[in-house]
Specification:
two-stranded antiparallel ribbon; eleven-stranded mixed β-sheet; globular; 14 helices; Anaerobic Ribonucleotide-triphosphate Reductase Large Chain
Length: about 450
């Protein structure tokens, strides 16, 4: 039970510190919609999503108003379309993406995820067709998000898939060149992808899930920053262990709010409640930044020496506090560092405090990886793939989820600005070492074998 003081503290978080439920994501199993007749598959997909999701937005709005806690985004995640549409061609799968986009618009959700494939051990026919469809599908839709899992600690890294994704990202960027490669902002490449992510662009519903489930993504970087600021103002001599304890307690309160809303939405929709994702997810708004937390901890900026240690402390404390607050923790859970979506991190890039190498280094302890990173448009497909491969290696060797959401901005160079709009924000383009030419290491193909720690049976 919360004390009166804790209740007042939570109300303060809602009023002045940008506390919200960042997303309620409805997962819908579409495996029973599979088939080789395009029209029948489209009708089944549209019908099943409409059946489960028709009241999602209104219920979230009602619950948010009831408790005074805004649900910022309402989203849908579906079974991997590479499985649902395994018998279809890449052109037909693009039509499926348009169906997903149409039904998402009708229902009123922000994004729909699950235009996805799992190829960590090999690429099947349906997987290859879906990956071929990704550039045109994302360019032709507004709300559809895609993800491809190319590596896992159990399987190693599928380097053929990594190279293919490098080419796919380049093509997607070129098809949306007039929007600074916007299609790439809706595409994540993963290692060790969880089956219950509520956050986009990685969200999809895992093969082992039921017919429908509600997963919640809480946030609150502004809340954590304010808590640290208040504590250090009253006692500047707090050590890092005490600060960690403070972050844990704050994460507990934030998570309880998310669980409350998620369970209430699930009850009203008569759908099972899934997990709470504890991730600190920023926005481009002032006061809602993960990057600002580093400054509250005493660093000049994210990216300077001490950044990796500070992020390790933050991530660990958030997970410990949130895990105690919720009976069902899942998704990614920790701290996101999406460059363009976090105003402070974007400024750190512009001011030269953080570059691609440091971003990659700190992904060894963060929740995701190289997220919303704009790179020069002339970066070759080989080198895009090589950046992905480096990030996948961090995930595989450390047995954690990592991802790459890279945007090679057509016609722009390092130091230029890229604009993606809305929650996707804007960013200065980061330089890439050896950004032109071929990469012969990547072109060897094959697989990088799973590490020894994969032998856990």
């Amino acid at each position: 039970m919360l004390t009166d003081r804790e209740i007042i503290s939570t109300l303060e978080m809602l009023e002045n510190e940008n506390l919200d439920v960042r997303t309620v994501t409805l997962g819908i199993n579409l495996l029973d919609c599979a088939g080789d007749d395009l029209d029948k598959v489209k009708n089944k997909v549209h019908g099943k999503i409409s059946h489960f999701a028709e009241n999602l937005v209104s219920v979230c709005d009602h619950i948010g108003q009831k408790y005074g806690i805004p649900v910022v985004n309402k989203r849908i995640a579906v079974s991997p379309i590479a499985v649902v549409g395994a018998a279809l061609s890449s052109f037909q799968l693009t039509d499926i993406a348009k169906t997903l986009d149409d039904v998402a618009q009708e229902i009123g959700v922000d994004f729909i995820g699950g235009f996805s494939a799992l190829v960590q051990k090999g690429i099947a026919r349906g997987d290859r067709a879906l990956i071929e469809a990704i550039p045109h599908a994302l360019a032709a839709t507004e709300r559809v998000c895609a993800s491809v899992n190319v590596a896992s600690t159990k399987a190693g890294i599928n380097m053929d898939a990594v190279l293919l994704m490098g080419k796919t990202i380049k093509q997607a960027a070129e098809l949306t060149a007039e929007k600074d490669g916007l299609a790439c902002a809706k595409l994540c490449v993963f290692a060790n992808i969880p089956e219950d992510i509520p956050f986009m662009a990685g969200a999809y519903l895992g093969i082992g899930e039921g017919d429908a489930v509600i997963n919640v993504g809480v946030s609150g970087p502004g809340v954590v920053k304010k808590a640290i600021d208040r504590a250090l103002d009253s006692n500047p001599d707090l050590d890092l262990g005490q600060i960690s304890e403070l972050i844990k307690k704050t994460a507990y309160k934030v998570t309880r709010v998310g669980e409350l809303i998620g369970r209430e939405v699930a009850k009203n929709l008569n759908i099972s409640f899934g997990v709470v994702d504890l991730s600190l997810a920023p926005t481009p708004n002032v006061g809602d930044s993960v990057g600002e937390i580093f400054q509250s901890l005493g660093l000049l900026s994210i990216g300077v020496p001490g950044t990796t240690a500070a992020l390790a402390l933050l991530n660990d404390a958030v997970k410990k506090g949130g895990a105690f607050a919720s009976s069902r923790v899942g998704g990614l859970s920790g701290a996101f560092i999406p460059v363009s979506e976090d105003l402070n991190i974007s400024e750190a890039v512009r001011n030269g405090y953080i570059g691609l190498d440091k971003l990659e280094a700190i992904t060894s302890v963060c929740s995701v990886g190289l997220d919303m990173v704009a790179i020069p448009g002339d970066t070759s497909a080989d080198n895009v793939a090589a950046i992905i491969a480096d990030e996948m290696a961090i995930g595989v060797i450390n047995n954690k989820t990592t991802a790459a959401r890279l945007i090679p901005v057509p016609g722009k160079a390092a130091g230029d600005s890229a604009y993606f709009g809305g929650l996707l924000g804007q960013s200065t383009i980061i330089s890439v070492n050896n950004g032109q030419g071929s990469n012969h290491f990547i072109r060897h193909g094959g697989s990088i074998p799973a590490p020894l720690q994969s032998l856990t049976n």
